Amino acid sequence: MGANPIRILCVDDDPFSLEQLRRALTQVRGDFFARCLDSPRQALASHLERPADIVISDLRMDEPNGIELIAQMSAAEPDSIYILLSGDADLEAALAAVNEIEAFRFLLKPVDGQLLQLTLDAAVAELNLRRLRRISMLSHSAIQRLRAGVIFLSPDFRVVFANEPAQEILRDSGVFEMAWDGALRAATANETRRLHDFLRALQSAGETEGDGAVYRFPAAGPARYVAASIRYHCGEHGADGSFSLVLRDPKLARASEEAIATALSILPSEAKVVRGVADGLSVEEAASEAGVSVSTARTYLKNVFLKTGVSRQSELVRLVMLTTA
């Protein structure tokens, strides 16, 4: 189990049905932590004290029933995902679940394991989208003031939010664009494959040491664009990983060494190397541009990591792009 598993709260006042659901959840792939309660009131108190990411509740319970329970839960925690279970194929109840409380899914008991897996995968993807939308709304004004382009992406690489500089890049750059279905892509098929390979690597493995989470265009030579990722959430198998990209627009002047040194409180000699790395150069290329050896450049970067509190080259690139934008 990871450090931040998806928390699932299961509620059913029938102990036998609750145990069936608990066993089904043990077969589900993913980074989940499930708590099962047979008391709707106890479940409500638990959710209000520490909200679950996903709530799976039986429909027909006493005081309150499933619809009443989820209505109270969602009023307090609208971003959580709510799933209703029922032993009856009750169309009227299913419609009420969808229309009255906007339940994410309505499933019949006993739940098929494969269907439960698909439902939870979809629930995690929806959970990430809701969180990304909330972040975009909370930080909208601050993000809009940046000169760097910021794009929030869904797990399937669709654009959830783009600030004004990012919208201009998508519209006019000839490098990145948004397809008719909202998917982020590059201007050519080959470059789109390279971009999507980069995004998939982030989803499956997360940020790695070095510059593995920095995308540059073109792949070789002076970079016209540099995109540094920000991981948002990723489950055990990575399929639900949502993230954002920070794009540097080449029409903007390169950040000066003085601006970088001032923004990061580092030495001018260190800023020379950082400037190259922030432009998408490898450590070797940045060292050559700064006129120092590769070992000296690596020493400078280690010092900068300590001074700024970052631990990866990609984090340093983001920091430069955001603080000097």
TrEMBL record:
Q: Keyword annotations for this protein?
A: DNA-binding, Phosphoprotein
List residues of the Response regulatory domain. Answer: 7-124
What's a Pfam family in this record? Response_reg
Q: Which PROSITE patterns does the UniProt entry name for this protein? A: RESPONSE_REGULATORY
Q: Does the keyword Nucleotide-binding apply?
A: no
Annotated GO molecular function terms are: DNA binding
Q: Superkingdom, according to UniProt?
A: Bacteria
Q: Which GO terms describe its biological process?
A: phosphorelay signal transduction system; regulation of DNA-templated transcription
Q: Which residues carry this modification: 4-aspartylphosphate?
A: D58
Q: What is this protein called?
A: Regulatory protein, luxR family
Q: Which organism is it from?
A: Amphiplicatus metriothermophilus
Give the source lineage, highest ranks first.
Bacteria, Pseudomonadati, Pseudomonadota, Alphaproteobacteria, Parvularculales
